Amino acid sequence: MSRRSTKKNPLMSLWLSGANKVAGAGLGLWRAAARQQRSAIFRAAGELSASYWNEALKTLSPGKRRNSGK
Question: Is this model's pTM higher than 0.70 or not?
Answer without folding.
Answer: no
